[in-house]
Amino acid sequence: MKSILLPTDFSKISLNAIDYAMELFRNEECEFYFLNIQKASSFVSDDLMTMSSSATIYQTIIDTAQKSIKNVINTIKNYYKNDKHKYYSVVDYDNFIDGINQICKSRNIDLIVMGTKGATGAESVLFGSNTVRVMQRCHTPVLAIPGKCKYEEIDKIVFTSDYLSHYKPDELQSLFTIASLYDSKIDVLHIAKEEELTDLQKNNKAFLDKIFKNITHEFIDLDDADVFDAVQDYVKNNNIKMVAMSSRKYSFLDRLFKRHNVEKFGYKIHVPYLVMEDTGDQE
């Protein structure tokens, strides 16, 4: 049984990500942990005025969040009526990242699914600050769902790689899981800037071919001066339903986190992003 963490602040963006997760894993036995993390600064003076003398700020915040999560879970249960799914509520009073890391460890979370702002026209910011921090500082894979992204079956996935890392199969398990659920085709996308691959890159590419042996896949080399334009165009022109990438230093994702690149990339992309930690050997 898979354990999925669903951080929520009860916004439309986070609720959309919850709906996406329910659809994505509708045929899988899953435990879903609905997590709301509160901090004292979220408690405003008007709330203090309505508290009973015996109440504490902490307990009032926790009780309110627990009630909200219960309402979300009841709505999900009534709408999806999925006997394969179990639901648990968790409310924490903590630093956002620390709270997520603690529950990932204590509940053996396999995947974090969370909403993110997505491409929004003139604003064109892809990732919200919390999503970026989770991707950068959590060891659990993250599936980020843009706010306006609606579920479609994941028949085609792009996995970006520079072939500089020797991936470990368990690091890509979340990618394997999703691909196997939908018999997805994976396009391993390499933006070629060098004349030819080094021996290290050739060996790592061959290893990827080996660990993807049970999944339909193809290696795609694109020659483009702008890596972000190349990925954007490929996703759009090939009806890609998900982009998967590693969080390795100097990787595509690492470069994407630089502000001007995030804005540029976020303007055109509306598909989910699967981010996996890469601890493999590097050049």
Describe the structure using short key phrases:
single chain, 283 residues, alpha/beta, Rossmann fold, 2 domains, 10-stranded mixed β-sheet, 12 strands
Write the topology of this structure.
Elements: E1 2-7, H1 12-24, E2 30-38, H2 45-49, H3 57-80, E3 85-93, H4 96-106, E4 111-116, H5 129-137, E5 142-146, E6 156-160, E7 165-166, H6 173-182, E8 185-191, H7 199-211, E9 217-222, H8 227-237, E10 242-246, H9 252-256, H10 259-266, E11 273-276, E12 281-282
Parallel strand pairs: 1-2, 1-4, 2-3, 4-5, 6-8, 6-10, 8-9, 10-11
Antiparallel strand pairs: 5-11, 7-12
What's a concise summary of this model?
This protein has 283 residues and is α/β, with parallel strands linked by helices. The chain contains ten helices and twelve strands.
